[in-house]
Amino acid sequence: MGPRVALFVTCIVDQLFPRVGLAMADVLERIGCEVDFPEAQTCCGQPAFNSGYRAEARDVARHFLSVFEQAEYIVVPSGSCTSMISHHYAELFRKEPEWLDRARAVGSRVVEFSTFLTEVVKVEDVGARLDAVVTYHDSCHALRELSVKSGPRRLLGRVRGLTLKEMDRAEECCGFGGTFSVKFAETSGGMVRTKVDSILRTGAEIVVSIDSSCLMQLQGALARANAPVRTMHLAEVLASR
């Protein structure tokens, strides 16, 4: 039996893409992990934090810490939420030493899904098969704050039947940025159109990422462009048999 992991599925996965959470659980159980889902979980506090509502973000963060404090590992299908907990809770609680210590202790056990596979349990072949040509989008928080780059590509490289074609702007932002896409819709739209052009140049039929928020942004733009490309979270790819 592998390590015991608690799933933090994030707001977007919970409300809009529950299949991603189910896929993540399937992959983790397949490789021998004992999977737990704390039902009291809510949000990590990132939307409030990014919008300047620090007091409200602290309230949400305290709840997160209380729910997950006893977990051996907390595995997250999102670079942005992982970064919020492991990096920005320290900023939220810099004037509250007790909560800061708790945030650092929990934050050290919060791991993005692909990183958990490649660096914690050190499994890259999970027995997946998907006959498709895919391209990979580097989400901003995962790449720039967590340095997640090669791990997802190594995992994709072990999926039978899958061909990975890199886009020329893999590391460029999709334009979502949470509330950024609402506050600056025109700029966000321009950014995602540039990204869609890069995706289409690869000839891929699927674009993969580790953040459902980016995939939601990309899928919307692809649909508006009538492009024959769909999106899949990495967990969904790895759950494919």
How would you describe this structure to a colleague?
The strands form 2 sheets. Strands 2-1-3-4 form a 4-stranded parallel beta sheet, with helices on both faces. With 241 residues, the protein is an alpha/beta fold. The chain has 2 domains: 4-119, no CATH class; 125-239, Rossmann fold (3-Layer(aba) Sandwich), CATH 3.40.50. 53% of the residues lie in helices and 15% in strands. Helix 5 runs antiparallel to helix 6.
Short summary:
With 241 residues, this protein is an alpha/beta fold. The chain is built from 13 helices and 8 strands.
What are the salient characteristics of this protein?
Rossmann fold; 241 residues; four-stranded parallel sheet; 53% helix; 2 domains; alpha/beta
The overall average pLDDT, rounded, is 95
Q: Roughly how many Å is the radius of gyration? A: 18 Å
Let me know the number of strands.
8
Q: What is the percentage of strand-forming residues?
A: 5-15%
Task: Tell me the structural class.
Answer: alpha/beta
- The CA-CA distance between the termini, in Å, is 22 Å
- Overall domain count: 2
Q: Give the overall shape.
A: globular
**Pattern of helices and strands:** EHHEHHEHHEHEHHEHHEHEH
Largest sheet: 4 strands, parallel
Per DSSP, the total helix count is 13
Low-pLDDT stretches are none
The side-by-side strand order for the widest beta sheet comes to: 2-1-3-4
**How helical, in percent, are the residues?**
40-55%
